[in-house]
Amino acid sequence: MRSPPASCSEPRKDPMDIEQVVARAAAASRPFAQTAPRERAAALVAAADALDANAGELIDIAMRETGLGEPRLVGELRRTSNQLRLFAEVIVDGAYLDARIDDADPDYVIGPRPDVRRVLQPVGPVLNFAASNFPFAFSVAGGDSAAALAAGCPVIVKAHSGHPELSARTAGIVAGALAGAGLPDGVFQLISGQAHGVEALRDDRIRAAAFTGSTHIGTMLARIAAERPRPIPFYGELGSVNPVYVTAGAAAREQDLAAGFLGSVTGSAGQLCTKPGFLFVPAGTELDLEAAAAVAEHRLLTPGIGDAFARRRDEVSETDGVTVLSQGTVRVDDAGHANVTPVIARTDLATLLAERDRLLEESFGPLAIVVEYPDAAALPAIHRELFPGNLTSTVHAAAGDDIDALVEALAETSGRVLFGGWPTGVSVTSAMQHGGPFPATTTDATSVGTAAITRFLRGVAYQGAPQELLPPPLRDDNPWGVPQRRSPAGLSQKWGALTGAH
């Protein structure tokens, strides 16, 4: 669970006019969509360079507003700027457009075929609700903004209340770089306040929205997006407990398991959407988790997150059948921020099943539960029952362990399945999937990696269109030089030949 944006009932504290903000984005939509790939890519690289050039200032602000450490923030900002550069490469490559050309074919076996050409085009203005726990990588210039800009969509970012100064400064740097690269006015804008975010979400000119945050706020916003007169896609990342399963063969590596588990649970004070919330081990497995008591306290991102963490600590520790291995501490400072140490609990599978309403809720912060199970054969069914939607699921197994059924269950319910290792640390790659079935996300798509761009594109087919009216990726002269999948006339006569059936 992440800290929600400010309450919908808060008074407006600034004079921003959402009508004007959305109007600027709408006016920029068509000219931005028509920018050549290299022009748009150059603008993303300019934004990345500007972020790097101002890294010292941005990291200082982020440390003060979030309480996160300098090494973590340095790495996160590097990830953010290089993510923009990666999307620039995707744009120039052009394969993401999925350009398809079917030449006219009077002898097409299903009946005469007209000239049909299909390409992915930008959906239009995108509203991005920034997250608290990644003040760079999932915030103003983070993955959702990068993907939408790469797709050719103007972006309006609703800043998170947990780091307002950083949001404003980052937006200024990015907007300035994009404008300096020649992109249209209105391509990148920042708004703040929950009321403003909801107002923008309801505006008919917004064509898609992205969100990372709490399940409560995410489902509320998803409902608004779905109930508009013209519903729009809402890509909400909500929450995940990311179970980890250890087989009897792997349980022998107790020392490595304990160290890896604690490192993954306590990194960034457990304020990561991929933090492992449950570790399943064979009954009788002894893990040395005493090191949790020696972990230094860490400030949580917002007072709201601190309150929720303290509540979850009490709920878990006071549940019958739960043994607390590391009680953890919660110290509230003068600014209202909670400074905490890890909470590690242990229980058995029967208790988890009986107390699922108390124990299964995501605990945002350094809290996790070790669960002893009696029979590995029951794990696939248990997983499907308790964890129907996850960002990640992990299995630690030894050579020769029979885990086929478990892996099948994990793949059905999770966006990423790990074999060994730990789920925290999401690499930005072309093959990454950071999403999963509900309740992990409202729409099962990825918000990390180059496939994230497809959320902000829609297919359009042109039939019998003159060359001069076709989008550049579909023209015969292919001025953008993008890959084109072409089906020439006469090809249908050979269907089935490659199967060897004839």
Automatic annotation (TrEMBL):
<dbReference type="InterPro" id="IPR016161">
    <property type="entry name" value="Ald_DH/histidinol_DH"/>
</dbReference>
<dbReference type="InterPro" id="IPR016162">
    <property type="entry name" value="Ald_DH_N"/>
</dbReference>
<feature type="domain" description="Aldehyde dehydrogenase">
    <location>
        <begin position="11"/>
        <end position="375"/>
    </location>
</feature>
<dbReference type="Pfam" id="PF00171">
    <property type="entry name" value="Aldedh"/>
</dbReference>
<dbReference type="InterPro" id="IPR015590">
    <property type="entry name" value="Aldehyde_DH_dom"/>
</dbReference>
<keyword id="KW-0560">Oxidoreductase</keyword>
<protein>
    <submittedName>
        <fullName>Aldehyde dehydrogenase (NADP(+))</fullName>
    </submittedName>
</protein>
<dbReference type="InterPro" id="IPR050740">
    <property type="entry name" value="Aldehyde_DH_Superfamily"/>
</dbReference>
<feature type="region of interest" description="Disordered">
    <location>
        <begin position="468"/>
        <end position="502"/>
    </location>
</feature>
<dbReference type="InterPro" id="IPR044151">
    <property type="entry name" value="ALDH_KGSADH"/>
</dbReference>
<dbReference type="InterPro" id="IPR016163">
    <property type="entry name" value="Ald_DH_C"/>
</dbReference>
